[in-house]
Each structure stands twice: as C-alpha cells, then as structure tokens.
Design a protein that fits this description.
It is a single chain. By secondary structure, this protein is of the alpha+beta class. The chain contains 26 helices and 32 strands. The strands form seven sheets. The protein has an eleven-stranded mixed sheet. Strands 4, 5, 24, 27, 28, 29, 30 and 31 form an eight-stranded antiparallel sheet that branches. Strand 6 (about 255-260) and strand 7 form a beta hairpin. The longest helix is centred in the N-terminal third of the chain and has 27 residues, at about 45-70. It is globular and about 85 Å long.
C-alpha cells in the first residue's frame, strides 16, 4: 500500500515553473487558482488547444484513456475477462464504427482543434514525471492513438448514454406479450391505445430480456435542469442563468473546469476531458446551459433473415447483410475474441453477433427474426467546432446557428446575454417516420416504417424573450399538443420543471442566492401527492401507525434529515415489489422498475392511478380492500428493511443515512485500495423528481446513482460574479490536494467563484506554469 501511495505522489503534475511542449508555436501561460482550475492564455487557437490537451491530460490521463477504451470496445485490454461482455456490446452497437464514420465528416475547424488537443495529450504522455497510479496498479501503459475516429467515439458514447429508448421499446413489447396491451398501457400510460400489428399474436423472437440482459447497466433518469430569467426579474436588471446537468455518479468528475483565452476565443466553464473547448459555460458576452431532450432517436426493426443468416428480407428481395469482423483484445489471452457483427439496412443486429476464436460461423436455420437498431448517433454527433461558434456568437440568432450542428444527443439550450436577451433552442435530429411512432419495434421487411429524413432545425421548438420573463427546462416535454412533429415519448415526468416554475414565480426578483436555493430544493411534487393517498390506509399495528403519522401532513420535502422521506421511499419500493413482481417476474420487474426509468413511470404515473382506482388486473378482485392489504404488507416490509441499518427508533431515522453519495474511482473495488481511491461519502436528499437530483436504483440500493454533476449560476451583470461547483475535485490523482477538495462545498450546496477577468484570475492565483515550445 505504501508503494502505491508513493506512486500516486510521483504522478502529480508540475504546476509551476516551465515545461517544454512539442507542438507549441509560442509560450502559453497556465494560471491555476486555489480550486485547481487552470486559466490558459495563448497567442493562437492552435496553441490554446494544444495547451488544453496537455493540462487536462496532466490531471485526467487515466480517465481519458479508460473512457476512450470503453467507447471503442477495448476496455478488456485494461480489465480482462471482467468486461468482455461490455466490449461485445460496444462493438455490436458499433460506437467505434460510428466514431470513425462521423469523424470523416468533420469540418476543417473541427479537425484543427481536435488534432491540436490530441497533440497536447501526447505531449503530456511524453513529459509526465511518472504514470498515473492506476497504470502502476494495473501494470499497463497509456493507449491513446492519434486517430480522430477513435477519439470521436467518446462523443458517440456520451450520445448513447443520453439517447437510450431502445430498451423501453423492448420492455413495452415484452410486457405487452406477457400481460396484454392494456396492462402495458397501465405502466406506460402515454402511448396510443391501439396495439400495433407487429406485437399482436406471436412473441418476438428472441426474448427482449435476452437483449436487455446483455446491455451494460446504466443509471436511471439521467437528466438536468436549466433556466434563465430576464433582467426584469432580477435585482441587477440583467439576466441570470442556472444549469445543473444530472449524470452518473463517478470519480473523478465527468467534467473538467477550465478557462480558455486566445485571440478569437475566450470561454469559461466545463469541458469533457476527451474533447477541446468549453461545453457548458459563458463568455464575457453571454452564457448557456444544457439539458437532455430525451427525444426518440432510436428505432428497433424486427428483421426476417434467410436460413443461412446472411440476408434480410426487404419487400420481395433478400438484401445481403453487411458483416463487420471485430477483434476484441482481452488481457490475459493469447488470441483475440473474434466477433462477427451483422448489419441490415437499418443497423446492427443486436442479438445475433457470433463469437469465435477462429473462423466464426453462422448457425444456420435458427434465427429467423431478430432486432436491428437504427440510431441517429450511428452517423451524427456534435461537430467539435460548435464550441467555437457558441463562444463567438454576438447574438441569440448567431448562437442558434452555432448549436445547429448539435445533432446528437439533442439538447435543450438556454441562453442569456449582457444586452438582456434570453432564449431557448431545442437541438438534435429527430426522425420523420412514414408510419408508426417509434414506441415499439416495427417490421423491417417493409418500407412502411422507414425514416424520411429529420425534423428541420427551423421547426424545432425555440423561444426568445418570452413575456413571462423566464425559460426553464428539466427533461420534460418541451412542446404542446398542437406541435406538428414527433420528438419522442420517453420524456421524464414534468415535476421538476413544475417545481422550478413554482419557485421562479414565487418572487418578483431573483438573485444568485435565490437561484442557489432553487438548485438545492428537495421538495417532490409527486411525493407530496402520493403520500396523501398512502396515508388513507388504516394501520394494523402500532409501528404502522407511527410510520403513517410521519407522513401525515408531510410537505414532500425529501431532505437528507427527513424521517418521512425515508419511510416514503422504502414504502414505495415495497409497494412496487408487492404489485409488480408477481406479475412481471423477476427479470422483467428488474428491467422495468429497478434499473431503468420504470420507477418514474410506476411511482408517478401508474401508482397514482392504482391508488385512485384499484383494479383487479394489478390488485386482485377485492378492489380497495386488496389495495390496503398490499399497502400494509409493503409498509411492514419497509419498516423491517429500515430497522436494519437505522435501528428501531423511528424518530432518529434520516433519509441521508441510507441515501448517500459515494464517490470512488474504479480501483476502489480492490479492498486494499478502497481508502486511497475513495473521494468521499456524504449524505444526500432528494430523488430523481426533485430539483436537487438524487436519483437511485430503487431495487438495488438507495445510494445516489445520478447527481448534479455541475452547478453553475451566471450573472450577466458582472463578468466575475458567476459561481460554479462540481462534486469532486479537478485532479484525477488521488494524492493531489485537488482530488476531492470540492466535495465539501458541493455537499453543502456552496460554490466557488468563476473568475473571468485577468484581474480576478490573478487575485485567486496559486500557481503559474509556462508552457514553452520545445526546441527542434
């Protein structure tokens, strides 16, 4: 252990003095402030992005490397047999192939800045004093090829995580097949009432559960909040803008905070460690923030294959499949695992890859129907040069044009500038379908369900300077019923957006402090409403009576110290088990409720309907009496569960005692290294429907799986008045003072200043490093 700690110490980067860096034309100044944020000043754009790559790699090299290996189906070169299935899925879906295809269409500014960034990363690998400690533990070297497609796959992976609805299509098909169309509508109530012919009658083959089982697990309900108010609603008479993207809990943070300045480009905010520029942030003129749209950009097609599995039926013809031979390198094996991925006109066949060491062969005559995935992200992503256009915009109209190339994942963008303009733009490519609505798998052997292009950018929802004086989004449906195009079905419930509006309209004028309070709000509108129904049950025991008393007149505040929040969340989980598990079966229940977005659909759509109108389909023939029996059994189970970790004194229970944020790096799974690679554990409030995000996987753990990954509040009246925070620290080195120094601030809901002007940057400066051109 001492040797590992010493290795961690050796890997820390130089932050003062001078370093020679290949690829630079002129010296670059890097001023780090007391929070470890680098402010990078360069004479040219090329030097700026070389320096950004160098500095970010000096703090996050292992994170960059592991993310890109995951995106390219190469994670098994790090972790061996443990992750082979993940690499299979990555290669089958084709994140690596999509990255290569998308990179071919990058414009010249994109090629220039990404090439400079990669050059900076390579320069750090050559200059670093020692390998990051993770490489020492794993006995590995960094692997970062200078290939634009390889790096672009990182953006594809990010888009995949924010695009997923293919699994919901499978879940709907499987539930409809097992329980009937009407039962499926109870669990997904926003769909059309008539069943499509593709799932009527015979069960799709193979089982949807087989596909869900093979896919990497992802946290539920990833989302975000953003809002902007006009100067007419602030104390400074200038706009205020807030954004807090909700992403999976991880260590180090998914974001790297940075301030970049060169002739033609200056922006401050956060970047993804594998890409150049500032993704979310501001300039001296304007600010912006993102939330995920959640539009439907993925469709599953049921294909009819020939007996030899080499062609797919389309109309009256058999179209040959495209075959991709993927070699997965597995640490510890002498030979690669060979994967044969077959692809129809619609996309890769998700369930029919074939594995073999040598000469893989198709198993003839067994697979006659299977699923092909069509996804916008197979050919479209975010043009890297978009960061240049977003920063250079001199008006909302120019900013709208800059985000036109934000094709996948689609984002809700809010904007505010020093002139007082506020605006909103929905971005992304959303398919126009000849038939169908993308909610369920459709036949692939007919032209009836093909895509006919995408919704035109000019016809996507947008707004500027509304009369209300504010704009807000929270992954909710962003258009009314009269909107003529289909964006999607799987928007997150509207409760966070309603609560934001509730708080924005509760006062005439807002300040940075009121915005901060909104970001930290843990009141759940659906919890408030559900609790009123739950407490109608007559308790059968004293401890049931005591638990119900805590929920009587409860305001729905899921604060970390709340007893009521603790009881409510555990009760709901056990109600779901009582109602759903016997009918769905373990695996389907797990995929619907426990690990994806079904907990939202059940708790906030299906359950309220069941509480108001108990039906025999879900509760048996005895109606309300059966419902109350279920509620009492579930409450007993909840109390039993909570007494284990929290004790019998119900008054001493706290939601945060079981609902924790655990920030730990991948190597914390090794028992002897857990302490070194754990950044911290803090109690948290909220759930996935509170503004202060605290999403968790209800049947897996109450620990937070999705959190506010970056909180920013931008005051357009003063370039140096902005504040921000992410939950860990700037550095990926566990020996660094900036490994987890931001966590105490984040946990308390505090921020640090986002210095922008040179005067403010120098006032917070702690170390200055000069990067100078290498002698050639």
């Amino acid at each position: 252990m001492d040797e590992v700690r010493e290795a961690a110490e050796r890997a820390q980067p130089q932050i003062e003095g001078e370093i020679r860096v290949p690829g630079l034309r002129d010296p670059v100044e890097v001023i780090r402030d007391r929070w470890g944020v680098p402010h990078i000043y360069a004479a040219t754009l090329d030097d700026l992005f070389v320096a950004q790559g160098f500095v970010v790699a000096s703090e996050r090299l292992f994170q960059i490397d592991s993310a890109l290996r995951l995106a390219n189906g190469r994670l098994a070169t790090m972790f061996g047999e443990l992750v082979v299935s993940t690499d299979r899925f990555a290669r089958t879906v084709g994140w690596n192939r999509a990255g290569a295809k998308i990179a071919e269409h990058h414009d010249e500014p994109s090629r220039r800045i990404t090439s400079a960034y990669r050059a900076g990363v390579r320069a750090w690998v050559e200059a670093m004093p020692a390998k990051p400690v993770e490489y020492v533990v794993l006995d590995l070297d960094p692997h970062l090829p200078d290939d634009e497609g390889y790096w672009t796959s990182g953006a594809v992976l990010m888009a995949w995580g924010l695009s997923g609805n293919w699994d919901n299509e499978l879940l709907r098909a499987e539930i409809a097949d097992r329980l009937g169309w009407d039962a499926m509508l109870d669990l997904f109530p926003d769909l059309p009432t008539e069943a499509p012919s593709v799932i009527a009658g015979t069960r799709p083959h193979p089982s949807a559960l087989d596909l869900l089982r093979s896919s990497p697990r992802r946290p539920p309900a990833q989302g975000s909040n953003n809002w902007v108010v006009a100067g007419s609603r602030t104390t400074t008479d200038k706009p205020l803008l807030a954004n807090d993207p909700h992403l999976a809990t991880q260590m180090p943070s998914i974001w790297f905070e940075v301030h970049l300045s060169a002739p033609g480009y200056e922006a401050s905010g956060v970047a993804l460690p594998f890409s150049p520029g500032v993704l979310i942030g501001r300039t001296a003129h304007h600010a912006w923030g993102f939330t995920n749209v959640g539009g439907d950009t993925q469709d599953l097609y049921v294909e009819r294959l020939s007996e030899d599995g080499r062609a797919a039926r389309y109309g009256r013809e058999w179209e040959p499949l495209t075959v991709h031979r993927e070699e997965i390198l597995v640490r510890g094996r002498d030979e690669p695992e060979v994967l044969e991925v077959r692809e129809t006109r619609h996309g890769p066949l998700l369930d029919s890859y074939l594995v073999g060491r040598t000469n893989p062969e198709v198993i003839e005559g067994r697979i006659h129907e299977t699923y092909a995935l069509r996804w916008t992200g197979h050919e479209h992503a975010v043009m890297p040069s978009a960061v240049l256009g977003m920063a250079a915009a001199g008006s909302f109209e120019e900013f709208r044009e800059a985000v036109r190339s934000w094709e996948c994942p689609g984002q809700n963008v809010v904007y505010g500038d020093v002139e007082g303009t506020i605006g909103y733009q929905c971005t992304g490519l959303y398919p126009v379908r000849r038939s169908g609505d993308g909610a369920l798998p459709v036949p692939g052997w007919t032209a009836e369900y093909e895509w006919e292009g995408f919704v035109e950018f000019e016809e996507l929802p947008w707004n500027v300077d509304p009369e209300e004086g504010f704009l807000a989004t929270a992954n909710n449906k962003v258009h009314g019923d009269a909107y003529p195009h289909l964006i999607g079905h799987d928007f997150l419930p509207p409760f966070r957006a309603r609560r934001i509006v509730e708080l924005l309209t509760s006062r005439e004028r807002h300040t940075q402090e009121t915005f901060s309070a909104i970001q930290l709000d843990t009141v759940s509108i659906p919890a408030r409403e559900n609790a009123r129904r739950l407490v109608e049950v007559e308790p059968a025991t004293d401890r049931q009576k005591e638990a119900i008393a805590h929920l009587q007149d409860w305001d729905g505040d899921l604060a970390a110290g709340s007893v009521a929040a603790c009881i409510y969340q555990a009760w709901l989980k056990h109600v779901a088990r009582q109602v759903l598990l016997p009918r769905l079966g373990r695996e389907l229940y797990t995929h619907y409720y426990a690990r994806r977005d079904g907990s939202n659909g059940f708790q906030f759509q299906a359950l309220p309907n069941m509480l108001a109108n108990p039906t025999a389909r879900w509760l048996g023939a005895n109606g309300r009496g059966a419902l109350h029996d279920v509620l009492r059994r579930a409450l007993d189970d909840a109390i039993d569960e909570l007494e284990g970790p929290l004790g019998r004194d119900m008054d001493a229970w706290r939601w945060g005692a079981v609902h924790r944020v655990v920030l730990a790096g991948p190597l914390a799974l090794i028992p002897d290294l857990a302490e070194l690679f754990t950044g911290g554990v803090v109690e948290a409030g909220g759930d996935e429907q509170t503004i202060c995000q605290g999403g968790f996987e209800p049947d897996h753990s109450y620990d937070v799986a999705v959190l506010s990954s970056w909180r920013q509040i931008i005051d357009l009246s003063d370039a140096d008045a902005a504040v921000g925070i992410h939950p860990t620290g700037q550095s990926g080195h566990p020996a660094s003072e900036h490994w987890n120094d931001l966590l105490p601030l984040w946990a308390k809901g505090e921020h640090h200043p986002l210095a922008f002007t040179r005067r403010a940057v120098e006032a917070h400066a702690e170390a200055t490093l000069t990067l100078v051109p290498a002698v050639t």
